Amino acid sequence: MSLWDDLKKKAYDANPELAAKAAQALDKARDLAVEAGQKAAPILKQASDKATVYAQEKTPILKAQALKAIDDAKLRRAQLQEQAKRDKAARAEMIRTMYDITLAPDDVNFIEEPFNHFERQLGFFVFNGEVLDSQKRNQTHLDAYHSHRTTGGTMWQGTGSTGSSSSSMQVSTHNVQEHEFWVRLENGKESCFQLNNTQVRIRPGQHVSLLFVHNAGNQNGTLVALYNHNAGENFTVLTPAQINQAFDLYTQAPGFFNQREVNDTRTRLLQALDLRIGQLVRYMAVHGDRRNGQVIEAEQD
Predict the structure, then answer these.
(1) What are 194's strand-pairing partners?
(2) CA 168 from centre of chain
């Protein structure tokens, strides 16, 4: 017998009537608690349902407000661009605010924020899903190089030297590790993705978000980053410099007189791209985890 049971027995033996009343009071308190819980359950459910309905009604309003703010920023940027053609101060203001954003990465509509570089504009979208299969394999590529060399000769009155020729063949090999993985997207479709990035680590059953970038007006995107929600890791697929080259945002070569201007412009662009990708990674980490049933309305089908 435990010490507690021994004490209860002694208390009952000392005053059975008081112990019985205490037991009755405890049972009554237990019954009241159960009854209160039963009465509160419908009220709590009703409050939860009201909160859900309110959120569903409020979400389109908030999204419309967020998109209007982005459209207003676009209009302001277009006005600055037009004015910058005539006004040096307006051009300086346009350059200063060119990469500004209207929404924060924690906002569910942040994915709608375009990336602007002068007259060029990039858009983004995110796919979320569950990894079904992930395989890495080595591919061997052969490179062949052939050279042919001919030397001239001289002849004079039947004497001299004749020309000669020689050929050489060089063959080199290099290995490329390809990563192929299948993801079941939120609409139920199963899609296959291929990478040449050996650093990406995912396995079946994990939930991932895939970030794509595309030119404005063209919905065909290029994979930029992958976020593994189970591991809490982000993997870069394209660096800012690679994005710049792939989309030809600013590839001007510096000359003798404009070297500083060109280098400064390129540096600002790459820094802004790096910052935006980091913000989008934050967006994926906050809104892309489908294990808790979240839905991103701004995401493309």
Answers:
(1) 180
(2) 49
Give residue for tokens 């435990």. 2
Single-letter code of the amino acid located at 150: T
Instruction: Report the run of H or E that residue 59 belongs to, with start and end.
Output: helix 16-84
User: Amino acid letter at 213?
Assistant: V
Report the alpha-carbon distance of residue 126 to residue 207 in Å, rounded.
Answer: 13
- Reference 138, options 198, 192, 200; nearest CA is 198
Under 8 Å CB-to-CB from 287, ≥6 apart: which residues?
108, 294, 296
Q: How many CA atoms within 13 Å lie on the side-chain side of 268?
A: 15
- Three-point CA angle 160, 161, 163, nearest 5°: 150
Angstrom distance (rounded) from CA 73 to CA 123:
15
Domain coordinates in residue numbering, the chain: 16-97, 105-135+180-292
pLDDT per residue as tens digits for the range 76-135: 777 777 776 678 888 888 888 999 999 999 999 999 999 999 989 999 999 999 999 998
Report the candidate in 242, 246, 247 with the shortest Cα–Cα distance to residue 270: 242
Any idea how long the chain is?
301
Q: Distance between CA 44 and CA 50 in Å, rounded?
A: 10
Are the C-beta atoms of 224 and 230 separated by less than 8 Å? no
